Amino acid sequence: xxxxxxxxRVGVIVELIDHTIAIAELNERGDLVRxxxxxxxxxxxxxxxxxxxxxxxxxxSQLLNALLNLPVARVGDDExxxxxxxxxxxxxxxxxxxxAAGPNGETTAVDIPVDDITxxxxxxxxxxxxxxxxxxxxxxxxxxxxxxxxxxTPGVGGHGQPHLSATLGLLPDADALLMxxxxxxxxxxxxxWFLCKAHQVCPVGAVVATKTDLYPHWREIVNTNAAHLQxxxxxxxxxxxxxxxxxxxxxxxxxxxxxxxxxPAIVKFLSEKVLSRETDRVRDEVLRExxxxxxxxxxxxxxxxxxxNDPAMRDRLASDLERRKREAQDALQQTALxxxxxxDGFTDLSTDVDHDLRARFRAVTEDAERQIDSCDPTLxxxxxxxxxxxxxxxxxxDNFVWxxxxxxxxxxxxxxxxxxxxxxxxMSPELSKRAMGADFGQLKALAxxxxxxxxxxxxxxxxxxxxxxxxxxxxxxxxxxxxxLFNPVSVGPG
Length: 494
Prior knowledge:
single chain, alpha/beta, 15 helices
């Protein structure tokens, strides 16, 4: 599958970038040249990330294998996917594991035999005792040639839902979500909760109802689930499929059986809604970068032209530049409006997130105490423990999504404060990672797949949006457990 007719107009954008780079080089603006080259590399990166999520034993891995017609995902009766697995295109099959940062502070990629992907790689001998963050697989599938990259995630159900927060943490940077739920029954409460939260973070997605070959009543289940989504105001389509029929169809080259499996409907969704990039954040970011560079070059060239045409213009330009210089210096002062908005907002955000999570944990504790008081805990301890772990996972997930939206609102407030302060030299009414301090060199394709706190380099907005997944929760869980761990979010900027 290829991207339909270059929907992003990459060729036009690249031509525009190259033209702007040439002008920047003539004007000896090396800083703009570097930024534009990074933007060029970003827009020409064809990777489109699709997260596959779902509860345990819903057929996620089998769905991915059938979709690609390749055994790229581990399948079994137990928890098959135990690590985040990234599957992208490669002319030859390949596999590697990404290890946690070592003494030098950087992650390490280690090649492994392709046959090893069917085993539990959490304790792979190639890791030499280091934690395995994810598995990356290269597969020669035509479906992946257009830039699709599938991210198979561990099941979000199970004992204590240990992977719930990590899966939610992947969604802010995903292009689409495939939520897998088999056709044995209508959505469970945890599934509906996850769908609602996931849709708020990643609005492009579909529900894949698997195992239709096993359950004759799958149509009633699909209709019921569609009604649930409508009531919850989650506009996600439901695609009923059979991975088993798809596998048989591919083996026997039976087109009619392939149609009955309904896998072409998934391919159609990916082509029309995902590969078409109806929502393309990277493209918008690159266009803003070009616009910013062009503005700076236009000011420089325009000033020189004005002086040449009217020598008296020099004094007026000098005065205007001095004024803009003062405005820029004022904007960097701690007393500047945007600094006050950021500091106050960050303090409120940190306090509110902390208070919200503590309140949720208090409710969990009170509920657990009621359970213990109402029965003999020695007979029901396993059940009580599972309920507490599930409740904690739900509380952390709710807190994550709530904080994500609060951080976005704060970023918008900070951006608006520039206009409110009358800083006409700061031309950034629209929020962008570059304008707020991030750099294209830091927007690496898979750098955020660990769903862990980001480093110091991701400043302000990108830090608030992308690095939340774990920091607040770890600090809160530690304090609830009586551990005096330092929580980085409790320290405001400035």
